[in-house]
Model the fold of this input.
Amino acid sequence: MRYIDLTLPLYDYMPVGAVWAWDVPFQTQPITTDGHGYVLHMITMHSEAGTRLMIRAMQDPTAPKVDEIPLEKLVLRETVVVDAPCEGGGRLTGDDMVTAFQGVTLETGDAIILRTGWGDDERWTRLGDDYARKTPFVTREAAEELVRIMKGNRSDLVGSDVATWGRGDKYQLPEWASKPAWERPPFPSYQAKRYLARYTKEMAYEDFHSPHILNSADVMYLGAMCNLGEIKKRRVKLIVLPMKLKGMRGASCRVIALEE
Done:
């Protein structure tokens, strides 16, 4: 059995969880030092920093929260790997999704890994914030096609190495994320709160079509996976372990593939 870690490392000011107006960059601050005999840190972070699990509860307050998801939905899931190569700045279309699934054999209930190649070769360390800003993303049409395929197969879990499933092209990217870091102080700054105060639900849905479509279809989805190129087989078993944050509607997680 081969174990493959598909999880982005969490480190200070990592790009996934640091570019959008609602993000809070991952930061650490020492509490104690070696001079005390042991070391402790205070950690500040966005609830979905790095590799994250997102669920229907993000938009539906009556849906199960992260701590209420049955483990059998997340642990040792039979999973098929689907290749959909896409370069930085690109977008997956509905036709791309159809092409990606051609020749792929799905078994009932399979989870899906959608592999674009973006999460390989530690690209996040070289690109910094551009790793999140220039990620390939899944368009509305591609998300609708993906949901159609998954619902037809009774599948409820999909993961990808896109940094974010949407890319905020209409509002957040030009108005906020494209600015240098010192011109977009993160939440809870006055500037971030003011921006979010005028950023309506309708604007968010226009910016991030595919998350809304997946949430509405009750499909759980993983973003910002990495090292998918290390998977050599078409089928793996997937382990997804979100932080058990009571009442949260999404969470950072550890994701591992088991390859026979």
User: Anything to note?
Assistant: Helices lie at 94-101, 123-127, 130-133, 140-152, 172-177, 190-197, 201-207, 209-216. Residues 2-9+47-259 form a domain with the Glucose Oxidase; domain 1 fold (CATH 3.50.30.50). The radius of gyration is 18 Å.
